[in-house]
Design brief:
It contains 3 helices and 5 strands. By secondary structure, it is α+β, with helices and mostly antiparallel strands. The model has no long low-confidence stretch (mean pLDDT 76).
């Protein structure tokens, strides 16, 4: 199974110049996620030379659209968190600090969930060590 590492480690370890890798690559390979949501990408090292199956630990979530031409300006799973923060700002403007504090609590509760969906916790290798520098 391919090993997952964070993007900064991947980018530092595996560089491609003119189609040649610089660095050490072990089998079967490594992958990293760069970016979030619909703008995210998955990078592989080494790049496979043939079509092969691959197992990834990720979530693909389709966006709900009202019509064929309506793009969602806020990507899932941040929709609820953004709504809570908008409520905080509106309530603070109305000088309703207690209500704003309640919405800020909802915001702070929802943010870890959204972050966990976008970038799940790095799994340990079968050998028990987390593959990540510092």
């Amino acid at each position: 199974m391919w090993h997952r590492i964070v993007w900064s480690d991947f980018q530092a370890r595996f560089r491609i110049y003119n189609g040649a890798y610089y660095g050490v690559i072990s089998e079967p390979g490594w992958w990293a996620q760069f970016g979030d949501g619909q703008y995210g990408s998955i990078y592989l090292a080494p790049i496979p030379g043939a079509k092969m199956p691959m197992e990834l630990d990720l979530s693909c979530v389709p966006q709900n659209l009202l019509t064929d031409n309506d793009p969602e300006p806020i990507p899932y799973p941040w929709v609820d968190a953004v709504s809570y923060w908008a409520a905080v700002l509106a309530l603070m403007q109305q000088q309703r600090a207690q209500d704003a504090q309640m919405m800020a609590t909802m915001f702070n509760t929802d943010m870890p969930f959204a972050a966990a969906v976008v970038c799940p916790t790095m799994l340990q290798t079968p050998y028990g060590a987390v593959i990540r520098s510092a």
